[in-house]
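Re: beginner question about structure tokens

> Can someone show what the tokenized structure looks like for a real chain? I only ever see the sequence side.

Sure, here's an example I had lying around. Input first:
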Amino acid sequence: MSEATNMKEVTNKTIIVLVGTTHPGNIGAAARAMKTMSQDKLYLVNPKIFPAEEATARASGADDILTDAKIFSSLKEAIADCDLVIGTSARTRNIPWPLVSPRKCADIISDNKYSSVAIIFGRENSGLSNDELVLCNLALKIPANAVYSSLNLAAAVQIICYEIYLSGIDHDSLESLASGAPLADQKTMALFYQHLEEVMISIGFHNTENPRLLMHRMRRLFNRAQLEENECNILRGILSKIQSKIKFD
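And the corresponding structure tokens:
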């Protein structure tokens, strides 16, 4: 399965459900958080104010998610067609509930046995009620500072959507996604190290009589950097310029 296909499947099955949201700005901010992580299914259960200009303003371009958002009068109605329901919870409950982290939640959602997964977020000031949490298969808790663990609704949505997004990415290809430029091969690097050593000797920085593992350390430094071919060429250009200055001074 390609990365794009896997991401599409994970996105299509995930629904973000906001219950009893009191501030319309938080709905817009949550929509923005969703869109940056390729999530587009938003369900609203009894929002206090929606639609609202403030929601649109805070969405910052994620208006389509707000336009397509579905509104329900009860949580039961919103999750009726879902085969897995995960409720977020920051409070300790009298009755322990099966608890997962955001990363574990993402792993579960990636499982092919689930076709529709709802992630439920409660009210800004009180979260989900016990009766609402009972409707969930699992509870999700975001690890945070025990002294100050309060998270804005949109921030919580962002964290969880981020983990879901990562679950659909080939992590080995993240480096190539960031650049795509070819790395310098071993032959190119060998010529660079030879060039570097010549210049360091010529400027008196490298004493071949007492090398003190200098070239070993330089190799370790640049090997760790994993130079792109173009970066290696730039460095060799600098070395050539130094040699030219030495020659004519």
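Each token stands for a local structural state, so reading them left to right follows the chain. The chain has two domains: 3-175, 181-248.
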